[in-house]
Each structure stands twice: as C-alpha cells, then as structure tokens.
Amino acid sequence: MISTLQRMYRHFYFRLCDIVDSAALVEMGSIDYLDLRSCATDAGIWEGVATYLVIVSDYVRKYRGAGLELPQIVTAAARFGGDEVYYAREFLRVPIMPQSARLYGSQLAGLVRKLELENGARLSLLPWLATAALVGQRITGSDKGIW
Questions:
Q1: 49: closest CA among 28, 15, 73?
Q2: How far apart are CA 138 and CA 58, in angstroms?
Q3: Which terminus of the chain, N or C, has fewer Cβ atoms within 10 Å?
Q4: CA-CA distance, 27 to 44, in Å (whole number)?
Q5: What is the spatial distance between Cα 89 and Cα 41, in angstroms, rounded to a whole number?
Q6: Over the Cα atoms of the chain, what is R_g?
Q7: What's the 3-state SS for the chain?
C-alpha cells in the first residue's frame, strides 16, 4: 500500500527497484490479496493498489515474456495497465492525464458516495499538494523533497 501511495498518488513514476521488489513479493506468495483488498478499500485506494500490481505484472511480462499470477480481484479492479506507462526523464512514468486523474476521480467519488468523509478529505488534498509540488519544482528546479 505504501508503494502504491508513493508511485500512483504522489510521484507518478516507478523505479526499477519498485517493480523488482513488488514482483518478488507476488512471486513468493507473500501477499494475502483478500486482506490487502480489505485494508486498501478501508483506506480508499483499492483501485490504485490493483492498478499498481497490474502495471508491475505488465512490465514483468514485457521483459520476461510472462506476467505475474494475479488473482481476478486484482485485475478486475485495475483502472489501467503497463501499456500506459512510458519512459521519460530516467523513470517509468505513470500518465497523469487522463489515466491517473480518472483513477483519482473514481476513488474520490466512491468515498463520497459511501460517506467516508475522513478518507475523502485526505484524498482530496492530493491535487493541492501536487500543485504546490509543481510550483516548488518551477521555483527550485528540483522535484526532490517537495512533498
């Protein structure tokens, strides 16, 4: 879940070590998918977690010839996959528009529909934080340590 928050909601890029580490967890059978779904749903980020795992699997498939064995609950919840990820500025970038924006919007709407105001308020801060990060990057010329 932490990797999802960092990669899918904060930085919008993957490092190769994120993919290798996540793939290793899947391949070792270390993930209890029902518990992961429960915790991620409670936090309002299940679709993001599922999307993260599908991106990892698609990237592995691209270079190994076979993706990871993910359960249907993961693949069905993913909003997009590795085909949408692209290489730029030394990282694998997650497209913000429209894919990540749709992911964010659907999750925020789901939280509001379920009246999960605390999670909705937390998730609603992301566009403001992203705007502050962009302004900080323009001023300092660096995207390190902005948020």
A1: 73
A2: 33
A3: C
A4: 26
A5: 32
A6: 15
A7: CHHHHHHHHHHCEECHHHHHHHHHHHHCCCCCHHHHHHHHHHHCCHHHHHHHHHHHHHHHHHHHCCCCCCCHHHHHHCCCCHHHCEEECCEEECCHHHHHHHHHHHHHHHHHHCCCHHHHHHHHCHHHHHHHHHHHHHHHCCCCCCC
Beta-carbon contacts of 35 under 8 Å, excluding residues fewer than 6 positions away, are none
Residue written as token pair 């308020």 = 121
Neighbouring residues of 13: CB distance < 8 A, sequence distance ≥ 6: 7, 91, 92, 93, 94
Q: What would the pLDDT profile of 4-25 be if each residue is shown by its tens digit?
A: 878 887 778 889 999 999 999 9
> In this model, does residue 109 exceed pLDDT 90?
no
Tell me the mean pLDDT in the region 62-77. Answer: 96
pTM of the model: 0.77
Distance CA 21, CA 6 (A): 14
